[in-house]
Amino acid sequence: MSHLNKIVLSLVVMSSLTLPQNKPERLSPGDTILFIAPSGYLKQDRMALAKKRLEDRGYVTVQADDIFRAYGYLGGADERRVEEFMAGWTNQNIKAIFPGTGGYGTTRILDQLDYDIIKNNPKVLVGFSDITGLHLAINKMTGLTTFHTPSPMYGLGSEENLSLISDYYFWQAIEANNPNGYTIDVKLFELGESVITLHGGKGKGELIGGNLSLINILMGTPYEIETKGKILFIEDVGEAPYRIDRYFSQLRMAGKFDHLKGAILGKFTRRAKEPPDDDNSFTMMRVLEQYFSNLGIPVIANFPIGHYKYNISFPIGVMAEIDADKQTVRILENPTQ
């Protein structure tokens, strides 16, 4: 074998390697949960309500004295947010880390985290939106299962609390012992709206994904999403169809849709204060159809994840099966240990 062929073979082998799965211990009442602000700054009233509800369930919550600090639109200077985040992984009394909210800021600190410490001290990490940055980086660098879930401020800290479906799958993911996995079936909760099948069939693979804009921002970095052989879930908020189209075109050209086993597309909700779309604009569903209907894999859309009152929790990095005909997602293993 020539020297060049040996190099090519080595690169092929390296690209096929994945980190061994690393799972945190499941939570149980009495465990200690750390609130942090690694992204945007936090609102005291919402965090107080989340704290009360967790403590009513039997958990202990702790937080830094300066957790409500603000630095521009951030929850503190980069150095302080890194310090607070890493302190959660080194403190053996902490069993879970709950970022209070998303917003903006995680991408400023990803290259300052100690991934060896995170890998060697597995804990439950929850959140969505900007927290996608942490989920993808930790998945890529450590293999640790993390959880795409409602955040304390917009879930447990909401006046109306978690919706029934959000509450059920949140605790299924991080607290329940499911040695044979569990099934996520939206139809059981009678939400008054339907999931849409864009392409039928079944597919198995690890769950990976999160907020679309964060997925795109991390392209070309060490934390770029790996999608080959996986089930991709994507959601976003406040983005016009042409912007979603732009994000998808980048991922398509980067080959991120080429070897998927399935796709779960969220609501892509809009904000009330957004300007109306141009009369000639594609609808959001039409954009989703253009990119996902002809991939030859199971695809469901309008799924309740992310920026929506119904926000189903997904464990990132665990094996799952999508059945687009039944419109269900089955988690095939225990997300925790």
Topology:
Elements: H1 3-16, E1 32-36, H2 44-56, E2 60-63, H3 78-90, E3 94-99, H4 115-120, E4 124-125, H5 132-142, E5 146-148, H6 164-174, E6 182-185, E7 196-199, E8 202-211, H7 212-217, E9 230-235, H8 241-253, E10 262-265, H9 284-292, E11 299-301, E12 314-316, E13 319-323, E14 328-331
Parallel strand pairs: 1-2, 1-3, 3-4, 8-9, 9-10, 10-11
Antiparallel strand pairs: 5-12, 6-14, 7-11, 8-13, 13-14
Helix pairs in contact: 8-9
The CATH H-level superfamily of the largest domain is LD-carboxypeptidase A C-terminal domain-like
Number of discrete helical segments: 9
Q: What's the architecture of the largest domain, going by CATH?
A: 3-Layer(bba) Sandwich
Compute the separation of the termini in Å: 44 Å
What is the count of β-strands? 14
Structural class: alpha/beta
Mean of residue pLDDT values: 93
Beta-strand content: 15-25%
Helix content: 25-40%
**Count of the domains:** 2
Question: In terms of per-residue confidence, which ranges show pLDDT below 50 for 5 or more consecutive residues?
Answer: 2-16
Per CATH, what is the topology of the largest domain?
Answer: Glucose Oxidase, domain 1
Please give the CATH class of the largest domain. Answer: Alpha Beta
* Rg estimate, integer Å: 20 Å
Order of helices and strands: HEHEHEHEHEHEEEHEHEHEEEE
